[in-house]
Specification:
With about 425 residues, the chain is an alpha/beta fold. It has two domains: about 5-50 and about 365-425, Urease, subunit C, domain 1 (Roll), CATH 2.30.40; about 50-355, TIM Barrel, CATH 3.20.20.140. It has eleven helices and 19 strands.
Length: about 425
């Protein structure tokens, strides 16, 4: 295993120092380090962060390898500064058995670019009718601890309660896609002034807020762990704030696109801006940003959702919802919050690693810890060109936008997956 001496780097925004990686761990952090056997990486002007962790990634394999594979998604993740991603269960077949989650886990290990931690389905086939093999998935080689029917809401309150009760036995987490389906039938975008003007069926904020309110009450009653996926409204923030004040074991995520883009993007009728939950209003964005800074919303998660060309380059009504996110998430965080490095490390690495139980990830570079880290050039600015992305899909909402920050290097257990801004393999 090659040793690496990273010189002149700022660790999570601190004063420049040197960092030595040897045998998969951080061997030393101090000024004036030397190691004759090490490959030197000049990191003057760069910031070292703990490797980013994404709690919400769609890798599409098995079943939709035309849109993404575990390998291509892992490469996109590494280029985005990630060392671990949690792969959602809405594959084909659905990841609702030990066999499927182990397949995804092994594909991630074979790719070797990031640690791929499968998320298991809550219900069989995501149908919302009966619980999937939660215990078998938890006991599998993949060691699943988070379960979600993402893309579908676990709408039946009795089934949601049973799921929360079941995973409590092994401190598991139910991650809910909060959408009351009877309020969103036929919905195409956020319900509001823009949807009325465009004549598109609206997705009301209350459809999200009602499910979150119900589920925090269920989690409080059971005493189990609830995670709310892709929070998108100001009303949801208030429900979460009240629940946390009562001590409910609830965590929540927000996506980069819900921190930056509004429902006004739908005026172009460009299906790249169609997403579930939909883009909301400027007032919602302001509330989400404040909640994330406060910690009412715990993490940024990408909801990286690649789609094949035919599923996006079509009429708005027929397009599938979803956007790419892995390769641009850190840049959006920098655009929104600026170089608040400790906040970014907390929301994009430490806390998601803690929620997922990913030991060795989400730990700031320090002597003796696994060398899972990323080097960022905060002064760089880059134009997002879809054709240059590592994902098999091209449905980025940031096409030709100029965004701050550039991932220069990513290390997974001391081995580089990205160097000089390029994937190593």
């Amino acid at each position: 295993m090659t040793a690496y001496l990273i010189t002149g780097v700022s660790v999570v925004g601190g004063e420049p120092t040197d960092l030595l990686i040897r045998d998969g761990v951080v061997a030393a952090v101090c000024d004036g380090l030397a190691a004759d056997d090490a490959t030197v990486v000049d990191a003057t002007g760069l910031v070292a962060l703990p490797g980013l962790v994404d709690l919400h990634t769609h890798l599409r394999e098995p079943g939709r390898e035309d849109a993404e594979t575990v390998e291509s998604g892992s490469r996109a993740a590494a280029l985005g500064g990630y060392t671990a991603v949690c792969a959602m269960a809405n594959t084909s077949p659905v990841a609702d058995t030990a066999g499927v989650v182990e397949q995804v886990w092994r594909l991630g290990r074979e790719a070797g670019l990031v640690d791929v931690q499968p998320i298991g389905a809550v219900t069989v086939g995501l149908a919302g009718e009966r619980l999937a093999e939660l215990g078998a998935m938890a006991d599998s080689a993949a060691g699943v601890r988070i379960f979600s029917d993402d893309g579908h809401c676990v709408a039946d309150p009795r089934l949601m309660r049973r799921a929360l009760e079941y995973v409590k036995a092994f401190d598991g987490v139910i991650a809910q896609h909060a959408e009351e389906p009877r309020l969103t039938e036929g919905a195409q975008m956020h319900e509001g002034e823009v949807s009325t003007r465009l004549g598109l069926t609206g997705w009301p904020a209350v459809a999200e807020e009602a499910i979150i309110a119900r589920d925090v009450l269920l989690a409080e009653h059971v005493g189990s762990r609830l995670h709310v996926c892709h929070v998108s409204t100001a009303g949801s923030v208030e429900v979460l704030r009240q629940a946390k004040a009562r001590g409910v074991r609830v965590t929540a995520e927000v996506t980069p696109h819900h921190l930056l883009l509004t429902d006004a993007k739908a005026e172009s009728y460009d299906p790249v801006f169609k997403v579930n939950p939909p883009l909301r209003t400027a007032a919602d964005i302001a509330a989400l940003r404040e909640a994330l800074a406060e910690g009412v919303i715990d993490i940024i998660a990408t909801d990286h959702a690649p789609h094949a060309v035919e599923d996006k380059e079509c009429e708005w009504a027929y397009a599938r919802p979803g956007m790419l996110g892995l390769e641009t998430a850190l840049s959006i965080a920098l655009d929104v919050f600026g170089p608040r490095w400790d906040l970014i490390a907390e929301r994009m690495s430490r806390t998601p690693a803690r929620i997922a139980g990913l030991t060795g990830h989400g730990v700031d570079p320090a002597p003796g810890v696994p060398a899972n880290l990323t080097l960022v050039d905060p002064a760089a600015r880059r134009v997002i060109e879809p054709a240059e992305l590592a994902s098999r899909s091209r449905n980025t909402p940031y096409a030709r936008m100029t965004l701050p920050g550039r991932i220069v290097a990513t290390f997974l257990r001391g081995e580089p997956t990205v160097l000089d801004g390029k994937a190593v393999k």
